[in-house]
């Protein structure tokens, strides 16, 4: 996160609106926040932290307490921060809860806290991510930053009085910070997954044990052995009970069969009685059935001659109808004859009136010609108006162009005059630019010389440090060689003492061969081979350290020589400028640069005027050409106006004066057209009416003749059918037409009678057959004794129920025990699988969750490796700032009790050669250690793929506890860190810092509140 722009109002000690533009300090600045005590230096960091998280860096004040007491009541307290995260930029605005004056009336009203977050995507409105809610804004910042407020305070801000928090944090707190920074939550998830899976397996094992106990309890046994014994005892008893049940079942079935047969016989006897009664009822219906049969036969006879009767009746009715139609047709002929005579008279009258059409058509032709001339007149008048407008427009445009031409002449004269003046002033620009180029080159070389001198100074210090380190390493190597040689000699002496133990009187010495041993070596303080090897390893290590220090010394000497050489080369290139102050050279350069810039501005102005002159000349040419064209166009427009006016006068003369009035000609044309239409319409209507009347008379006459012919034919056919009906009735069994009509029955009724007769006969045959079959089935059997049969059945059924109940109890018990044996086998098998799985998963869970050994979890183990990398980077800076005395190391001993281990810190004191707690450091030493740890953490976080980018660090106080030399080393460390692309802000009262740092935020206070000023070199 890099801050870009901070805006605050009515916040802390700042009563009005203040703004800090961090981009003015450069891309990766090292700057000082300076000001007197209580002015509000720390409030700048509070504002940044409050904007991001809604809390201050020290967490001592509530957000509602951040309002400035000096602020105007109408000015609300709010913070706006623009910041960059990688390639993206964001803006956050926060308003704490506060009171403000009511918009209406007197008194105060409560203003709720709110926050907004935008992504600055280049658009004017930007992309709104959080509209208002404070909690959503804080969650969004934590998601973007990858840090919560506590972690932000510990790794990006070292607030006043809080810079030791990260240094003194225990393993648990440091694990929380590091896991967020290095994204190691996957290892924590592995721990939780293994722990969850192991707990699940363990719970499953317990459930299976409970299941086994529950299975045994359900069978009312205590052990699996009791289950097997119960099954063995039950098997023979179950077989005997099953046989007895089978015998009782057979006797029960025989008794049930006897009862079923008795019920069947009784049912047949009852049905025989019922069928006999039904037969007698059907036989009683026989007379009525015969009567229906006779009526059906009469109807069939009537139906045989019904067609002849129907034809005769239909033909007589048709003849009557035809006679009526013939009378109506004769009446229609009379009516159409009268209509035809009236239509012919109307046609004759219309033809007489139509003789005046010829005169009207001639008059219409004359009026059409006058109408055409009138239209030509209107067109000519329109053309005349257009010509007048065109002439006026072209004349006006010509006047405008002439005026523009006069204005351009005036502007051209003024521009030429200014160009002459500027060209005189630009005569000194070329020599000034040459001098400016020389000064710029000298200034750059002078700055290179300053950098070379700084580099030489650093190289001198490095060479001296390397020389001291080499001497120390050389001395340590000499001491290691001496110690190794002494240890080896002691080992040889120990070997002689061991050999002397084995020598007896008269035995030859394996070294000299003598059999006399007057002075045997003593075996006090024996040294083994391992001690010699250890000393030799220390000697080899010391040699490596010395060789490394020697190489570093050679490199430092070489770099110092090169720095001196570069310094001399730059001095020879600069010549006299090398003796001048860099400030003086810069002042001369800036003075000449300002003069050159002014002349270049005038040169640009002159060039612009020359270009304008050229543009004016081109524009004048265009306007002159346009004036000539417009003059010609005006003359042509005048000629056209005269021609059109002449044509209008000619047309006016050709039209009668009476018809020149508006609408007079149109009214006369309409009158003539109306008369022609009336006569034409009357003639056409009369012709059409006469034609229609003729057509109607023709139709009526033709139809009347057709009806006369048809009536004669139909009368003859009626007589033939009447004779046929008389013959048919004489041959039928009916005495007259009345008996014939009474005998007719409908077809549906005949079908019903037929169906009724057939159903009666079918019922009669069926009943006779059923009675015969029942007589054959019953034979000579009498009615059964149901009381005796029922008594025997009850006895057999009770015996069977008793045997079945006994067998069911034993069989259910046997099946229960068999099923329990199967469940127990499955449960034992599953339990064995779970125990085997728990041996693997449970062990992994214990190891991963730090339940074994040194109580270090998987994530803490990974973080301990990362912490080692952090401490390597931190110790390099701490060693440099403490002049080689201190190094930060990770404590590897297990913590007491159940406290988490693996991430505690210790400081290794080079003076005493011992490690001790970081809490034992003094205030200045703690500050250097905390600063080194923060810088080391920043380096390592950014070196890990996927890590959070910590490219900003704020330090609030702590420098006052350092001596001059330590302060200088700390500042050099921060300068080196800044060169790697970090933004570093320091809050301090130390005057040396203000003198060394050119980039500052000066905080000034007065009775009305504090103000911020940015100082950027």
CATH architecture of the domain at 1-156 and 957-968 and 985-1017: 3-Layer(aba) Sandwich
Low-confidence segments, given as residue ranges, are: none
Overall helicity: 55-70%
Instruction: Count helical runs.
Output: 20
Average pLDDT rating? 76
At the fold tier of CATH, the topology name of the domain at 1-156 and 957-968 and 985-1017 is: Rossmann fold
Number of strands: 17
Distance between the termini: 24 Å
> For the record, what is the CATH homologous superfamily label of the domain at 1-156 and 957-968 and 985-1017?
P-loop containing nucleotide triphosphate hydrolases
In spatial order, strands of the major sheet run 2-1-4-5-8-9
Task: Assign the structural class, choosing from mainly alpha, mainly beta, alpha/beta, alpha+beta, or little secondary structure.
Answer: alpha+beta
Q: State the CATH class of the domain at 1-156 and 957-968 and 985-1017.
A: Alpha Beta
Biggest β-sheet description: 6 strands, antiparallel
Radius of gyration: 65 Å
> How much strand?
5-15%
Form type: flat
Report what the structure shows.
- The chain is of the alpha+beta class.
- Among the domains are: 1-156 and 957-968 and 985-1017, 3-Layer(aba) Sandwich (Rossmann fold); 224-283 and 766-824, no CATH class.
- It contains 20 helices and 17 strands.
- The chain has helices at residues 41-53, 134-145, 149-155, 165-168, 171-181, 185-218, 224-283, 286-353, 357-425, 429-502, 529-574, 582-654, 664-731, 737-743, 747-778, 786-848, 858-881, 923-943, 964-979, 991-996, and strands spanning 2-11, 14-21, 30-34, 78-85, 88-95, 98-101, 108-111, 114-119, 127-130, 157-158, 886-890, 905-909, 914-917, 952-956, 983-987, 1000-1006, 1009-1015.
- The strands form 4 sheets. The protein has a 6-stranded antiparallel sheet with strand order 2-1-4-5-8-9, with helices on one face. The protein has a 6-stranded mixed sheet with strand order 10-14-15-3-16-17. The protein has a 3-stranded antiparallel sheet with strand order 11-12-13.
- The longest helix is centred in the middle third of the chain and has 74 residues, at 429-502.
- The chain is flat and about 185 Å long.
- The model has no long low-confidence stretch (mean pLDDT 76).
